[in-house]
Automatic annotation (TrEMBL):
PROSITE patterns to which the protein is assigned, alphabetical: HISOL_DEHYDROGENASE
Gene source species: Sporosarcina newyorkensis
Record-linked Pfam families: Histidinol_dh
Residues annotated to bind substrate: S232, Q254, H257, H323, D356, E410, H415
Function: Catalyzes the sequential NAD-dependent oxidations of L-histidinol to L-histidinaldehyde and then to L-histidine.
InterPro entries per UniProt: Ald_DH/histidinol_DH (IPR016161), Histidinol_DH_CS (IPR001692), Histidinol_DH_monofunct (IPR022695), Hstdl_DH (IPR012131)
Lineage, highest ranks first: Bacteria, Bacillati, Bacillota, Bacilli, Bacillales
Catalysed reactions, semicolon-separated: L-histidinol + 2 NAD(+) + H2O = L-histidine + 2 NADH + 3 H(+)
NCBIfam families membership: hisD (TIGR00069)
UniProt name for this protein: Histidinol dehydrogenase
GO cellular component: cytosol
Cleavable signal peptide: none
UniProt KW keywords: Amino-acid biosynthesis, Histidine biosynthesis, Metal-binding, NAD, Oxidoreductase, Zinc
Gene: hisD
Sequence positions that bind NAD(+): Y124, Q186, N209
Length: 426
């Protein structure tokens, strides 16, 4: 893991978006998949599933019998952990739910904002070789709390045509209404435009590979999306008293995600930096996903030496990392210095993995510097707002002349006339 000075750091390190996103041929392939699904519906989805996943399906929808079989296949220990996570995630997200509100400047005027859940959402959960029940909870529970009418879930089937039982059980526990055995760009297209089996939704959320991310970008506008998530990233801020064993473990917890994941440590201590390098090498040798993590650390891992904590915070705010761990003395005292981060973990006993599974806040976070202007997934992503305006006749009369002047200054005489015809009757 390379060690550099803060003055040598370049933000380009975290610009790790897949090069295929700039590949016109890649885009043409994704757009072709989307268009074929729009035209051919279920038949196209089934064909693409056989081609890309190697699975020939007779039915896209998961049956109730399959869910019941999944419930019998998972352990009691898994149920306990899942329900514990569900309770914490639910409790946290219930606090995010917004209410409609109204103002009465006087008895003749009512102004307000009506908060309404969106009608439907499609949740993408990566699958196939891996299983992510935590992703199910993090996407479905906020939608359920918001009051979304229909929650659909898509996830790639395993080689035998089934869905991982842990994912199915998580979907049942979280209140998902419909589950479909489909992944990739074809799943995004099916959710965006509908097929004979898969209902069109108004918003799509959830992470996926480059095909999924690009498909989400191309259907945006026809439907809403949560975000375009890039490779994972973590930034640890450390001082003389930081435990290098903990810091190394947390950096590697993100490095094992993807060869393009970024693990960065910003520290004021050269002694700590030396210990961290040795500890990362030691723990890397013991990691199951050693090959992936090694590539991540070599390409995008950095230890950045700075002179002061204030300099460290300034660098963090430039990075706007997905995950930020303040593993320093009295971290709460420095929280106000952080402006840009997806999730902030305070102290050495608040590892990133805690946020991934059990703490309660959402683990779907902005990446690649987008935490500078966006937020974690939340209940607010599944609700929309409508302005409410009521004026009595006398209240409109008081502002009629000003409206006419403003409308005519924009040469919108039709707007002005809509006021004039009412004024004529006063």
């Amino acid at each position: 893991m390379k060690t550099i000075r803060g003055t040598e750091f370049k933000e380009e390190l975290l610009q790790r978006s897949d090069s295929s996103q700039l590949d016109l041929e890649f885009d043409r392939n994704v757009l072709s998949i989307i268009e074929i699904v729009r035209l051919e519906g279920d038949r196209a989805v089934l064909d693409f599933t056989e081609r890309f996943d190697g699975v020939k399906l007779d039915n896209l929808m998961v049956s109730e019998e399959e869910i019941q079989e999944a419930e019998q296949a998972v352990s009691e220990e898994f149920y306990h952990a899942l329900r514990s996570a569900k309770q914490r995630i639910t409790s946290y997200h219930e606090a995010q739910k917004e209410q409609s509100w109204f103002l009465n400047p006087n008895e003749s005027i009512v102004l307000g904002q009506k908060v309404t859940p969106i009608d439907s959402v499609g949740i993408y959960v990566p699958g196939g070789k891996a299983a992510y029940p935590s992703t199910v909870l993090m996407n479905a529970l906020p939608a359920k709390i918001a009051g979304v009418g229909l929650i659909s879930m898509v996830t790639p089937p395993q080689r035998d045509g089934t869905i991982n039982p842990h994912v199915l059980v998580a979907a049942k526990e979280a209140g998902v209404d419909r589950i479909y055995k489909v992944g990739g760009a074809q799943a995004i297209a099916a959710l965006a435009y509908g097929t004979e089996t898969i209902d069109k939704v108004v918003k799509i959320t959830g992470p996926g590979n480059a095909y999924v991310a690009r498909a989400k970008k191309w259907v945006f506008g026809d439907v809403a999306i949560d975000m375009i998530a890039g490779p994972s990233e973590i930034c640890v801020v450390a001082d003389d008293n930081t435990n290098p064993i903990y810091a190394a473990a947390d950096l590697l917890s993100q490095a094992e995600h993807d060869e393009r994941a970024a693990a960065v440590c910003v520290t004021t201590s050269e002694v700590f930096a030396s210990k961290l390098v040795a500890e990362i090498e030691r723990q890397l040798a013991q990691l199951d996903r050693q090959e992936i993590a090694t590539q991540s650390i070599e390409q995008f891992g950095r230890i950045i030496l700075v002179d002061t904590l204030q300099e460290a915070f300034e660098l963090v705010n430039r990075l706007a990392p997905e995950h930020l761990q303040l593993m320093i003395d009295n971290p709460m005292e420095h929280l106000a210095s952080i402006r840009n981060a997806g999730a902030i973990f305070l102290g050495e006993h608040s590892p990133e993995a805690l946020g991934d599974y059990m703490a309660g806040p959402n683990h779907t976070l902005p990446t690649s510097g987008t935490a500078a202007f966006s937020s974690p997934l939340g209940v607010y992503d599944f609700m929309k707002k409508s302005s409410v305006i009521y004026y009595s006749e006398s209240a409109l009369a008081e502002v009629a002349d000003d409206i006419i002047i403003l409308a005519e200054s924009e040469q919108l005489t039709g707007h002005a006339n809509s006021i004039k015809v009412r004024k004529a009757g006063y």
